[in-house]
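This entry is set out below.
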Amino acid sequence: MAPQRVIDYVVVHEMCHMVHLNHDRSFWRLVGKIMPDYKEMENWLALSSWKMTV
């Protein structure tokens, strides 16, 4: 299981797609406005997501 903060990031990321369909600058600005430390969550996912099971 991922830490709650990482799960929150995934939810924020997907909800931002309701406003911006692509990963353009506006999308990442919105993600950053909601979750300023989102890059830390991305790093966690990049390093640890392989450990997660469905």
Summary: The two ends are 9 Å apart (CA to CA). The chain has a mean pLDDT of 95. The chain has three helices and no strands. The CA atoms of residues 25 and 40 lie 18 Å apart.
